[in-house]
């Protein structure tokens, strides 16, 4: 007499020799997209947010001619081929206000003057002194 569980084991043992199932298991276990670690987040100045990618860059400037490098930022759409692995869960709003930061800047002109030189200070912070 064969026990029900033994019959199931025997049936399973017979079907495991089936090459179709083995090939299907190998196909499902295959890695679909493998990338070198250096290919991920390759652009260190790209920042992904919900509305797109903020692409920061530094534009030339010749110190000998009296021109300092200037920071620049452009919004570009999301693209898988950039392989950015991190996302800030916020929407970029170029017209957003930061009242606490602006109040902090107003406490001392020595704080905001260097920031204004590099365009990091809100455009109207000098007028509110």
Describe this structure in words.
The chain has about 130 residues and is α+β, with helices and mostly antiparallel strands. About 30% of the residues lie in helices and about 15% in strands. The protein is built from four helices and three strands, in the order ααβββαα. It has a three-stranded antiparallel sheet with strand order 1-2-3, with no helix packed on it. Strand 1 (about 45-50) and strand 2 (about 50-60) form a beta hairpin.
Major sheet, described briefly?
A: 3 strands, antiparallel
Strand order of the largest sheet: 1-2-3
Would you report the number of β strands? 3
The poorly predicted ranges are none
Using only CA atoms, what is the Rg? Answer: 29 Å
Number of helices: 4
C-alpha geometry: elongated
Decide which structural class fits the backbone.
alpha+beta
Could you estimate the helical fraction of the residues in percent?
Answer: 25-40%
> Strand share of the residues?
5-15%
**What is the H/E order?**
HHEEEHH
Summed over residues and divided by their number, the pLDDT gives a mean of 77
Separation of the first and last Cα atoms:
97 Å
């Amino acid at each position: 007499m064969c026990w029900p569980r033994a019959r199931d084991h025997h049936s399973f043992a017979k079907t495991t020799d089936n090459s179709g199932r083995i090939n299907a298991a190998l196909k499902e276990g295959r890695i679909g997209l493998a990338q070198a670690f250096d290919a991920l987040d390759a652009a260190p100045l790209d920042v992904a947010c919900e509305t797109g990618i903020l692409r920061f860059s530094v534009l030339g400037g010749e110190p000998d001619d009296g021109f300092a490098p200037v920071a620049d930022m452009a919004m570009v759409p999301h693209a898988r081929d950039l392989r950015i692995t991190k996302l800030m869960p916020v929407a970029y709003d170029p017209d957003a206000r930061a009242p606490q930061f602006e109040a902090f800047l107003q406490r001392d002109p020595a704080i905001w003057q260097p920031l204004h030189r590099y365009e990091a200070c809100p455009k109207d912070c000098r007028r509110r002194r």
